[in-house]
Amino acid sequence: MKIIVTGGAGQLGRAFAALAGSFAGQLVILESHALDVTNLAQVHSIFHQVRPDAVIHAAAYTAVDAAEAAPEEAFRVNVIGTRNIAAACLQYDSKLVYLSSDYVFDGRQSRPYTEFDCPNPLNVYGRSKLEGEFIAARICPRLFIVRTSWLYGDGHNFVRTILKLAREREYLTVVNDQTGTPTYAADLAQGIMALIETDGFGTYHLSNGGYCTWYDFAQEILRLAGLPTVVQPVSTGTFAAAALRPRYSVLRNYMLELSGGDYFRCWQEALADYIAKMPLGISER
Predict the structure, then answer these.
(1) Which end of the chain is more exposed for a tag (fewer CB within 10 A), N or C?
(2) At what angle are helices 11-19 and 185-196 packed, to 10 degrees?
(3) Where is the RmlD-like substrate binding domain (predicted)?
(4) Apex CA 81: angle with CA 255 and CA 42, to 5°?
(5) pLDDT recorded at residue 283
(6) Active-site residue among 98, 125, 211, 274?
(7) Is 92 marked active-site?
(8) What is the mean pLDDT of the chain?
(9) Domains within the chain, CATH numbers bracketed
């Protein structure tokens, strides 16, 4: 199987690059300089060269706060870029995995969101990802929509930020009124690879198990790293963020449960694995 991965420089793209050596097929991992998904001619040129059996579309505009001031750019990348990829998948009969987000929900529920709950995004980024879902579904019949949450892996992320700040400060302030599920990019990549081998097309939530607040997440990061930095819980209103965030965006991997079982481990176990594998210069400096 030949698979194109867009957004190769991102955390998920790097997780797929780490899987390339053990994959029996061919993973063609493309960064934005090699494939601008908003350029339809370039998209078709790449597809003509590779003729992929499947595409994992991870390229996206992900700057949540910046999107409030630049909605056209967010929609250009997340909707027009997705349209271009979906149209090429239709032409070449390729399976498509479209990466979406927990931010398609408004966070007003008090139970984990399933794939059958109605989206209602609060911000521009969430709306652009939801419109990306809609346009992919209208074009490409061989489609997996994969929603995930609070992703971390190889690259800039919450875990590395907390570790860095913890070595520079005596105490940290972290939001304690937003609840979700941290998801390890390596686990997500493996989950997508398992899904793409099937023809069980549809919408899936893929995240690690359990849930926590950002404050709980920070506490566990510091505990696993053996750092004594004090963390002070604060409300979302403490930070003047441009975009509204859902207060509760826990995803339940319900379609996996219905299809034979949820194989994702709990977020604490995944985080411990991630921190244990971090280079010493990052995790213990």
Answers:
(1) C
(2) 60
(3) 1-278
(4) 125
(5) 46
(6) 125
(7) no
(8) 94
(9) 2-156+182-210+250-265 (3.40.50.720)
